[in-house]
Amino acid sequence: MSIRDVPIRDESIRLGQFLKLAGLAEDGGHAKELIETSDVKVNDQVEVRRGRQLRDGDVVTVDGEQARLVAGR
Question: What's the whole-number average pLDDT of the chain?
Fold first, then answer.
């Protein structure tokens, strides 16, 4: 399974925002639904907090798709 790098300008981003940015969720409502139904993993752990702060190197998985946060670039 390949991991797609998703760059952000800042050092961190909230999980809900990252899902939209990475194209893993269509919009904020879809991101919320994915998180509430335990369909989102951060570093192979199920994550249910939409406000979870992601940092450089964190890998988010949704339905087999993976995206890695690349911060500060």
Answer: 95
DSSP 6-58: EE-SSSEEEHHHHHHHTTSSSSHHHHHHHHHTT-EEETTEE---TTPEEETT-
Range of the structural domain that residue 29 is part of: 3-70
- CATH number of the structural domain spanning residue 8: 3.10.290.10
Q: What is the model's pLDDT at position 72?
A: 81
What is the maximum span of the chain, computed from C-alpha positions, in angstroms?
32
